[in-house]
Write a structure and sequence with these properties.
heterodimer, A: 84 residues, alpha+beta, 2 helices, B: 221 residues, alpha/beta, two-stranded antiparallel ribbon, 5 helices, 26% strand
Chain lengths: 84, 221
């Protein structure tokens, strides 16, 4: 069995308003940071997972992302995978 | 009401289960039974309420974890049989997460947890959940949520409008919901999800009785 470290990034779709991102952007401006054009908040999920090769692990991660980690009505996801 | 029994689902973190039971039993004389979320035996209940609260601490997304409970797995067959399911607040979030209703509920536009009475227009009485006469009806129900902003894509919204699946719209949109949507039904009409709390509006002494009709309609066949 191979072991992989996976980092999943879940983001609100561009068409979905991100009020937490807007509030953080507003605070960033108050801090004095200039030039922020856009600020959106997502989630990062780290998974360590075993499987027989990268393809099998990708299948498992695809299922997890599509059915659990992200709600694809409002969120997109992508992930990176590293063999340990 | 004979032996008609409404099952009230209890998840870890549900907190309106007893309110729903009180409203049904105390105000409407309808028998209720609590259903622990790990149960998948729905044989002795005739309708189901998914109550408000914070199932599984709202971890990941509201309703996302509850979707994988044995009870929600068993709900598919229950809904297909035509029996009635009412999802209130967190229950509505669970119904969208599990695909019984389209769209999603996400953080309120102003990020506030809003606890207030709101006026709602009854748009459709599909499924008989609302008393909608010839004239446009407005009711007042309490809301209490931080993540009640209904969102769906434009194709889904068109389908909701064309098929008269929008049950309730906010008169003064409090949370930024698409098209002011506060509650929707499935196409058959036997599943209703709404953010307002009808169970908190069943007695004049606590501010109104506009929620009675919806709870009473659980016993419709």
């Amino acid at each position: 069995m191979d072991q992989f470290a996976v980092k999943v990034f879940v983001r609100l779709r561009p068409s979905v308003l991100d009020p937490a991102g807007e509030a953080t952007k507003s605070a960033s401006v108050k801090l004095g940071a200039e030039g922020i054009r856009s600020l959106r908040i997502g989630k990062m999920i780290e998974v360590k997972i075993e499987g027989n090769g990268e393809n099998e692990v990708r299948e498992k991660i695809d299922l997890l992302c599509d059915r659990l980690f992200a709600n694809t009505v409002i969120e997109d996801y992508e992930y990176s995978l590293e063999k340990l | 009401m004979d032996n008609f029994t409404v099952g009230i689902v209890v998840f870890p973190g549900s907190n309106c289960d007893r309110d729903v039971s009180w409203a049904l039993e105390g105000c409407l004389d309808i028998r209720t039974k609590y259903l622990w979320h790990e149960s998948s035996d729905l044989s002795d209940v005739d309708a189901i309420v998914l109550p408000g609260g914070f199932s599984y601490g709202d971890y990941l997304r509201c309703g996302a974890i509850a979707r994988f409970s044995p009870l929600i797995n068993a709900l598919d067959e229950f809904v297909k049989s035509g029996k009635r399911v009412l999802g209130i607040c967190n229950g509505f979030q669970i119904l969208t997460e599990s695909g019984f209703l389209p769209g999603a509920l996400t953080a309120n536009k102003n990020l506030n947890f809003i606890c207030d009475d709101v006026e709602l227009d009854i748009i459709s009485s599909k499924g008989g959940w609302f008393n909608n006469g010839d004239e446009k009806q407005t009711i007042k129900l309490p809301i209490a949520h931080g993540e009640g902003r209904y969102h769906c894509d434009s194709d889904t919204l068109k389908k909701l409008v064309d098929n008269e699946l929008i049950a309730l719209r906010y008169k003064n949109n409090p949370n930024g919901s698409s098209f002011d949507i506060a509650g929707i039904t499935n196409e058959r009409g036997n599943v209703l999800g709404l953010m307002p709390h009808p169970e908190r509006a069943c007695d004049e002494t606590i501010g109104g009785t506009d929620g009675l009709f919806t709870l009473k309609s659980l016993i419709l066949k």
